[in-house]
């Protein structure tokens, strides 16, 4: 089994001649937390959308677990085990945390969601759903409506519904966006915990979170990879400092 789980080769995206992502080579190693950072406009979101198949690349290839996934849909790659958080699983505000996770588990089997399906069928997934809620620290909110949860706990619930798909690799788009400090700490601990047996690639603006969590960081600037390494290495790289200051 290769050490590299996700690889991008010469990944390029042009928008009407403007090159937003320019020949990016990326290797995410199995079991790591890998962060994609860079100043505003660096191409992080575009790169993330290419990797998660929300956008087709202009050039380049993407390989997951040795398979060329360049032409696959996001639903196809989810079936291979590469899942973007919040991709498939919307959280239903009026349903409880438990009901939301049960529905996500039911959808994993490929059944389309039928709101009127009897609770009896969904209750088959009860034990597994409770296990996932425990994994994300929401056991005491099992019967709380999603709409009543704090922002950070709602995010934890979204992560639980994503974990219901049993991903081998998770792609997280700014998991800390808009969060209060207490929630940032809770979600940081949660990401650390779920990374124990999964690979994670995230785009994240909060650099102290990136420093705490990441094994490897890729810094993008003007669509290209500017630097790569652990936090100590990239944060001391004068080109990185300049890119952030000059942005
Ligand atoms: P980041 O996430 O690092 O802030 P983005 O990937 O959002 O950067 O954007 C990179 C560059 O590509 C920006 O200059 C942005 O204006 C441009 N861009 C992104 N999406 C589009 C689009 N759909 N059409 C045209 N330009 C775009």
UniProtKB/TrEMBL annotation:
GO CC entries: plasma membrane
Domain ABC transporter: 6-247
Keywords (A to Z) from UniProt: ATP-binding, Nucleotide-binding, Transport
SMART domains: AAA
Annotated Gene3D superfamilies: P-loop containing nucleotide triphosphate hydrolases (3.40.50.300)
Record-given protein name: ABC transporter ATP-binding protein
Record-level Gene Ontology MF annotations: ATP binding; ATP hydrolysis activity
Source taxon at top rank: Bacteria
Taxonomic lineage of the native organism: Bacteria, Pseudomonadati, Pseudomonadota, Alphaproteobacteria, Hyphomicrobiales
Claim: Transport is one of the keywords in the record: yes
InterPro entries, sorted: AAA+_ATPase (IPR003593), ABC_AA/LPS_Transport (IPR051120), ABC_transporter-like_ATP-bd (IPR003439), BCA_ABC_TP_C (IPR032823), P-loop_NTPase (IPR027417)
Annotated Pfam families: ABC_tran, BCA_ABC_TP_C
Species for this entry: Tianweitania populi
């Amino acid at each position: 089994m290769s050490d590299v789980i996700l690889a991008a080769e010469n990944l390029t995206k042009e928008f009407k001649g403007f090159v937003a992502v320019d020949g990016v080579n990326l290797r995410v190693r199995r079991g790591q937390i890998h962060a994609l950072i860079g100043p505003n406009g660096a191409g992080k979101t575009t790169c993330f959308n290419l990797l998660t198949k929300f956008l087709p690349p202009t050039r380049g290839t993407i390989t997951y677990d040795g398979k060329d996934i360049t032409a696959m849909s996001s639903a196809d790659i989810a079936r291979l085990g590469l899942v973007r958080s919040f991709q498939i699983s919307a959280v239903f505000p009026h349903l409880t945390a438990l009901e939301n996770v049960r529905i996500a588990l039911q959808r994993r089997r490929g059944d389309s969601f039928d709101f009127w399906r009897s609770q009896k069928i969904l209750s088959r997934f009860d034990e597994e759903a409770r296990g996932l809620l425990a994994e994300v620290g929401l056991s005491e909110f099992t019967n709380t409506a999603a709409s009543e949860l704090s922002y950070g706990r709602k995010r934890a619930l979204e992560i639980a519904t994503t974990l219901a798909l049993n991903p081998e690799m998770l792609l997280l788009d700014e998991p800390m966006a808009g969060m209060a400090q207490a929630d940032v700490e809770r979600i940081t601990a949660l990401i650390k915990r779920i990374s124990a047996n999964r690979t994670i690639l995230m785009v994240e603006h909060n650099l102290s979170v990136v420093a705490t969590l990441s094994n490897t960081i890729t810094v993008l600037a003007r669509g290209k990879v500017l630097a790569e390494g652990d936090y100590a290495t990239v944060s001391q790289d004068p080109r990185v400092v300049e890119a952030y200051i000059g942005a």
